[in-house]
Each structure stands twice: as structure tokens, then as C-alpha cells.
């Protein structure tokens, strides 16, 4: 089970010398086993799955946590969608009012995009999910709705004994007193419990969060508290704010570490990172 | 034990921010959360009791009509919501185990998930001023 981070920036792609260490592409992670590739989120990072990175497997599963633009913007530039030999399965959170097709078509249609979703050459299958379990290739996947504006799910991807949990946009601390420290009352708990790696939202500093409660994101502090409560082995802190430069991220993380108590090993997610969980 | 669905968790977080008594039950009527203002109605603290089975918390106070006659459970908004999964509202009296009587207004609503699944119910109590 090989994990690669293709985009860990939040909100909007942010290029330039100030973000070259942690990267500027928005949410996209792949999990590969043999030649099978599972794609988590379709942010701008997904565009890099071309050329020598072009998935060789005939079937590709793309799992979308939600349909905010930073998680789907790269779909229009995901080469396999334009390859008639490919069978693409897109899994996304169900809404109570509109189909996944209808909601994805808002972006993949003029005037925002020249090609209609229904005209894509690949064999396209859409799957609406919520609190669901399903298989994709060799992977067992659990999805649950989590706290973030609009229908949003997180994913727990299991292969044999290895578990990767993907919660790039998540605000488990939403409320008067932050995260309720009882497992039954923690959003996303079942997805993360005991995972080998948890990739979690850590967009804001505590000061920023005080002005942005309800926006659906977390601080490093809450991400690590969540990782600690769920007893994960390792935390990757992601969804970096577009205004946070590499220098600022390092300072923010170092400042947090000085005051942090006992937490699982944590690091800032960096675009291009590869992890072998075999 | 699996965690609650986020619709339940968010209802608790909302209740925790309100100054009116709020009770949250699962689909069987078991009391899974009540906020601080509700503690004064129940005379118990959530930190001390934790979740309460329906058989236990339903006996804490006695619902009465305006003539002081006991109300049938099926006349109570929360019971009706748990039965038919619709919102309900009613004004009535409650008498605590200490014999204290209060005129209250109760509104209950079902918690139905995005996928249409019935997850539980919320009851909001409001103490009415005597005329």
C-alpha cells in the first residue's frame, strides 16, 4: 500500500517560491497496490497523474470527500477521464436534494468548463455514498459523513492490516467547548480509530480559528487532539492555508510542538511525499 | 461502540450553546444528552448520569393536563415524534418527584439524516409564566 501526496494545499492552488517546500496543489492523494491506483480527491494535484505517472490499470476509482472546488478542480485535467479505454468510478457524498451527477455537472459544464460531464470519453460510473462500506480494487473503504459545510465524507482505506484515514476537511471541534472527549461523540472517530496514518485538516492557527469557526477546518492543536483521542500511529497535517508560506508553516508547527503534550508523531504534509505502508 | 452520526453530534453541540432546555434521544427514546438548562428541569447533571434509559428518565417528572390529570404518554410531543417521526408541540404541566408543578411548552422534532434515516429526536422545553 503505497501512498503519495499530490496536493496538500487548502482552498486554492498557491504557487510560488514561498510554497515550494510544502507545495501549492490542492487536495489529491493516491494509494497504490501493484498497478492499481485509488485516487482520493480531485484537487489540482490530480493533474500530475499523467505522463510517467499515468495510471496503467484499466479501472480507476476516484473518491471525493466533497465537492468544494479545491477538491474537484483538477478533475477536468485528469487525463484518464478523456481516455476511452478507461473505466472511471467516481465516489462522492450523497446530498439530500441533488444527484452527484447534477452537482459535479455544475463545474464540468460551460461556462466554467468546456466539456460536459456526460461527454467525457471514458466509461464513467458515479456512486453516491454516505455512511458506507465498499471495495475498490484490493482496498476496503469505509466512508462516513463528517463535520464540514455541505455533504462531506472522510475515508478509511484498509488493505490487509494497513489503514490510511483521509480527513482533509474536518472541524470536529465545532461547538462551545471544542471536541467532546468521548469516542461516541467525536465526528470521524470510527474512520480514524487506530489508523496507521491519519491525514487531517490543520488549516488554521488558533487565532485564525477564533474568527473562522464553522468554516469547516481545524487547527494543528485540534488535529493532534483528534489524532490522540483516536489513537492513530502518525498524523499528517494538511490542507495548508493558502496564506501560509513555508516559513510560516514551520514556525506554526514548531510553536505548537513546544506547547503540545503527548501526541502521536505528527508532521506537516508535504506534496510529493511517498509512504509505503506495506 | 460506534460513534453517533454527525447529525446527532451536531445537535448536541448546538444544544450545548443554548440557554433553553434541550433533550436528545435515540430512536428508542433513551436520553442520550441533555444540556445544562435541562439539568435544572431534570434535577440531575448529565456528567453524573450519562445516558439514561427511557424507563428511567420518563419517570423523573409526571406530565399533567390543565386540570391536573395525568397525560397519556402518547399525548406527549416527544413520544409522538418517536412514533411518527414528525415535529409536535404541546403546552402542559409537569410535576417533579418533589411535587413541584411547572407550566411548560414542549416542541419536539425528529433528527432525520441526509439519507432520510431516522436517528432520534430532540425536545425543547420552555417554562411558561403563569397568567
Description:
The complex is a heterodimer of chains A (278) and B (131). Chain A has 278 residues and is an alpha/beta fold. Chain A has one domain (2-276): Metallo-beta-lactamase, Chain A. Chain A has helices at 69-72, 100-107, 189-192, 206-211, 220-229, 246-259, and strands at residues 2-7, 28-33, 36-40, 59-63, 87-93, 123-129, 132-136, 139-145, 153-159, 162-167, 197-201, 235-238, 266-268, 274-276. The N and C termini of chain A lie close together (5 Å). Chain B has 131 residues and is an alpha+beta fold. Chain B has one domain: Beta-Lactamase. Chain B is built from 5 helices and 6 strands; from the N terminus they run αββαααβαβββ. Chain B has helices at residues 6-15, 36-42, 46-49, 54-57, 77-84; strands at residues 22-26, 31-34, 61-64, 88-96, 101-112, 118-127.
Give the biggest beta sheet of chain B: 6 strands, antiparallel
Q: List the domain count of chain A as a whole number.
A: 1
- Which structural class fits the helix and strand makeup of chain A? alpha/beta
Q: CA-to-CA gap between the ends of chain B?
A: 48 Å
* Domain module tally of chain B: 1
DSSP helix fraction of chain A: 10-25%
**From the coordinates shown, what is the CATH architecture of chain B?**
2-Layer Sandwich
Q: Assign the CATH class of chain B.
A: Alpha Beta
Gap from first CA to last CA of chain A: 5 Å
Counting DSSP H or I runs of 4 or more residues, the number of helices of chain A is 6
Q: Helix-strand pattern of chain B, N to C?
A: HEEHHHEHEEE
Q: Care to count the β-strands of chain B?
A: 6
The number of helical runs of chain B is: 5
Helical content of chain B (DSSP H or I, runs of 4+): 25-40%
